[in-house]
From TrEMBL:
Keywords: Cell projection, Cilium, Repeat, WD repeat
Subcellular localization(s) per the UniProt record: Cell projection, Cilium
Name the UniProt record assigns to this protein: WD40 repeat domain-containing protein
InterPro entries: Quinoprotein_ADH-like_sf, WD40/YVTN_repeat-like_dom_sf
Amino acid sequence: MPTVAPLDLEGHVVSTHFLGDIPFFATAAGTVHRLDGGEKVTEAHQGLLTCIRDPFSATLLSGGEDGKVLRIGHDGTTTLLAEVPRKWISVIAGGPQNAVAYAVGKSSFVRQGDGSVKEFAEERSVEGIAFAPKGLRIAAARYNGVSLHWVGTNAPAADLDWKGAHTGVTFSPDGRFLVTMMQENALHGWKLDGKAGDNRHMRMTGYPAKVKSLSWSVKGKWLASSGAPAAIVWPFSSKDGPMGKAPMELGTRANIMVTQVAFHPAEEVLAIGFIDGMILGVRIADEKEALLRRPGKGAITGLSWSASGKLLSFSSEAGDCGVVDISA
């Protein structure tokens, strides 16, 4: 079994991320801990709601109950990007050219690299935001669908409609598909590169619980999801994505729910975190499993691979976090 270096923190840890080979752990109280020649702490927020890794830069982005949006560097330094008094910032995304998107109520905001801010109003509250992999474009998930906005123009939004509450959103790495998490136990997808009149909807249903974690494989052939007692992994390699195809079920454990999924940065290997704190690694090709961590005190809330793919950090709602050395 790989070696595990534990890190015990107080209270709920919201997420974990690597910047290079430095693991970061963000707590609900607002502190961000990093293991960099010892444990170091950044006082980021008065109540932290979300902390993500910016896929376009080597930084973290965080939002809090204090209405602040911060960029956090690898040395723990913070830069205030936005502040909305008396509002909670729980929806955030990183984009190209140092752009950052965040949501407040029924509006999405995009702060561009030059500091200018553009607002996009919606009819309903924005529950999730994602930047397209190419071009300065955002998707805003809301009730009854998704709005697509080009940041650099005043063109009207392109609306992707599907009844129900959409609580999160992600683009495939090649930009051909868009997938949302829904309040009902399902995913919904749209094929973005189809001709007009194509059946562009993809319904991915059958989950026993809400999906709260998604991860694309390195080349976008697979989309892994939580929300079941196995990681549900949908195939996206064909031109129509998962339409008409059954998903793989990896790491099945009877009645023990998957809470987090994270694909390896270079290989088709999936890390799966469970509600009891256990972590499995599963190879897509042959479904071979490796135990990476035995059950712990609380549900896994975050999984993150280092850039080299040799280290896996994990966070938990009980504060029992750590780093798994896969190469050991």
